[in-house]
Amino acid sequence: MKNWMAALTVAGAFALPLGAQAQDNYPSRAITWIVPFAAGGPTDAMARNVANRVAQELKQTILIENVGGAGGTIGAAKAAKSTPDGYTFLVGHIGYMAAAPSLYARLPYDPARDFQAVFRFPDTPLVLLVGEKSPYKSVSDLIAFGKQNPGKLNFSNAGVGSTSHLVAAMFASQAGMEITPIAYKGAGPALNDLMGNQVDAMFDQTNTALPQTQGGKVRALGLTSSERMPQFPEVPTMGEKAIPGFQVSTWYGLYAPKGTPDAVVQTMYQAWQKALQDQAFTGRMSEQGIQLLQPAQYAPAAFQQFTAEEIQRWAQVIKQAGITLQ
């Protein structure tokens, strides 16, 4: 009888779902965060910054796996197909988690259906830049020229479907003008040509634009944030004087493959909550022009809802701009 009961107990243990077996001591080994871009870019830098701090709270290693290609969709597809055991996550981004469903005729994953939101990172607003020798002194100057000269304003961007491309398209649509997008292989080359006065303007993230504006190599005309930022004390928001209601940021966040146990999601989110209480950590991000959110906005449910809303928002922008990818 005793042997039969022991066998039943062991069998019952093996019958438990995979997640249930692992939750008691999660995480018991290194965790992988997939970043769908090459190392060294802004998404990779953000991911490593957050991962290092969250790993301290989890007391476990977080490894960054860079899986680049196709605007981030290759890495996202790999994450979607990974085992939902709490040891593989995706570092999500506005491009391949919100814009991609409307950009690609065939996408090998569904951002809403194949992933569970874990937590949102702080946002990174963008800033409208022109070269130091540019004749445009304000956003209104730029819009006035653009309306009078359809298609003559060249906006550089980090690639077709990139945040800088999409935000420029959104800006042109709301300003009622036509611009010519110039796609580059990354934000660096796009910014270099702006500094070399080869193009007229560009939207860039505040954290990467800040050193260039401080060095006088480019001039900032307007911020896409809801309020002015101390890092750009003389720069108005886009909605302040030029386009009322214009607000957009590059956003990032952590996603788990659908089916990941809720206890695992909550463990990861709680580690992030603790990391956000570190004022030295959040202070460094703020200094770089990265914008902290309201506490409730970081949570899994809020982030899941935000993702769904962003998919709809960018579908409208992309349709109006006529942007398509194969």
From TrEMBL:
Pfam families in alphabetical order: TctC
Signal peptide: 1-22
Keyword annotations: Isomerase, Signal
Protein name stated in the entry: 3-carboxy-cis,cis-muconate cycloisomerase
Family named by the database record: Belongs to the UPF0065 (bug) family.
Coiled-coil region: none
Segments passing through the bilayer: none
MF terms in GO: isomerase activity
Keyword check for Isomerase: yes
Alphabetical list of SUPFAM superfamilies matching this protein: Periplasmic binding protein-like II (SSF53850)
Domain of life, per lineage: Bacteria
